[in-house]
Amino acid sequence: MKALQITDYKGPETMKYQETENPRVQKKDILIKVDYSGVGLIDVIFSRGFGQLPLPATPGLEVSGTVIEVGKEVTDFQIGDSVAGLTINTLKGFSERVSLHEDYVVKVPEHLELDQAAAALTNTSAALILLKEIVNFPVGGSVLVYGPTGGLGSQIGQAAKLLGAKRVLAAAGNETKRQKALKLGYDAAYLREEFFTASEEKCDLIVDPVGGENRKNNLLRLNAYGTLAIVGNASQKERADIDPDILWLNNINLTGFNFGGYCSQNIKKVKDYLVWALELIANEQIKLPKLHTVPIDNAVQALLELETGAISGKLLLKHF
């Protein structure tokens, strides 16, 4: 079996598509022949040494494909089922085959393509969990989303609308992405660095997967009892110092959300969200961003483009 692996911490440039061990199937496991692997910026960050994964390491948080073997105690899946699976806690998603506990696997609706399933599994479900379980979601209120056209941001904006936000704003990294955000249904879209001069609007929820100095400034753009939700650090810039007195004096909240950690602690609940996410995509209640699909043995250039921001949307690796 082959997998795309991190062999040192020098980045995507030195990742190798090479032979590795076949996965083992335990009694509650499902073996999936992978058609598509979803890619997140975190996979690139891993290749730069974040987390210091033991080498060689196979990244990848989500897959879709076909069941080719089931453990002896698995009853809800059978060989030939089209499925999507979260590899977020085991990684190894950039592999030809993955073995996952049945709790991390869901069936793909008949009217949903496998590439769409791989693209939706992590980001759409994470957006729904963030808004339903983690923050005090402002039904009838306003939401500002950084990275609004990326895999996660594009889903947060639409999910917020679906769940009852009155106004959803975007803070984009460049003009092209700002225009794309408007096409995704945001009520207004600003350039990230100009938001604080172009608008005086305050929000009930600000979602930031980007990081940098704007985090500190965002606290001053929250309404009373509003929340700044930190869901990533895509910029990998130096952390902003946040004065806790700002939270205290303005009656505002600061929270973090790590989807992988949440999955490891609440997988039974997460599985319901995985099913819901795929149904929303299948029924076109939430739209995926543009999908960029490349063969896995030709993935290095695409990973570098994802790192620089040249790819906006969702990157998928194809195994056939």
Automatic annotation (TrEMBL):
Molecular functions per Gene Ontology: mRNA 3'-UTR AU-rich region binding; NADPH binding; quinone reductase (NADPH) activity
GO CC term (a single one): cytosol
Signal peptide stretch: none
Record-linked InterPro entries: ADH-like_C (IPR013149), ADH-like_N (IPR013154), ER (IPR020843), GroES-like_sf (IPR011032), NAD(P)-bd_dom_sf (IPR036291)
Keywords: NADP, Oxidoreductase
Enoyl reductase (ER) domain location: 11-317
Highest taxon above the source species: Bacteria
SUPFAM superfamilies: GroES-like (SSF50129), NAD(P)-binding Rossmann-fold domains (SSF51735)
One family name in Pfam for this protein: ADH_zinc_N
Keyword Transcription regulation: no
Keyword Oxidoreductase attached: yes
Full protein name: Oxidoreductase, zinc-binding dehydrogenase family protein
